[in-house]
Design brief:
This protein has helices at residues 5-19, 30-46, 59-72, 87-96, 103-121, 130-141, 153-169, 181-186, 197-201, 214-220. By secondary structure, it is mainly α. It has one domain. α4 (87-96) packs across α7 (153-169) and α6 (130-141) crosses α7. The longest helix is centred in the middle third of the chain and has 19 residues, at 103-121.
Amino acid sequence: MSEHDPSRREFLRRAAAGAGAVAGAGMVPEALAQTHEQDNKEHSATNNNGEGLGAFLNRDDAATIEAFTERLMPGAPGKPGARDARVLNYIDLALAGAYSDLQEFYRHGLAQLDQYCRGTYRAPFVRLNAAQQDAVITALEEGKATGFTWPTPQAFFETVRTHAMEGMFADPVYGGNKDFAGWRLVGFPGAQPIFTRTDMQSKEAFTRVPMIGLQAQSKKS
């Protein structure tokens, strides 16, 4: 793990905790909420053949997104990362549903990323070591990665980072944040039915009762 991991993790953790809605259902489009259950069912029904293919992403693109988002939110002992939270699953389902208008954006972005990595390091992103992957991500963020036309390197970086944060911190009902991994990281209590005055005034992480997601709440109604 590179020396940049703690600062990157802390940046995303603070961004999620400070935004409030980032850790709740309000951070993703309503359309995504309406389609996630059907997407998950179709995903499960069509992916029992061992091929490892997703709802939208093919095997190679899925591996790239998983590696990319793990460098954005790297796991550490006792601290879940993007892979632990199934951020890839969130992005894959979103691109097959509510974010389908971004399919070509991702296809072009991933193709350009692959060309840049092969031209710079003679290997695809997934085969680079952590330091090289971080260097590629930094080049994208700073707009210095060559060979990009559409999307621009910065636009691609910003979009994947935004979706990674959504997959990490949105309600698990959307396909990511497995076992409330992101919420546990920032101390978000979930879709609790009620908060006491003490809960509302406390500055400490909410730990009084188990975290509750929207899916559990909907089953009660």
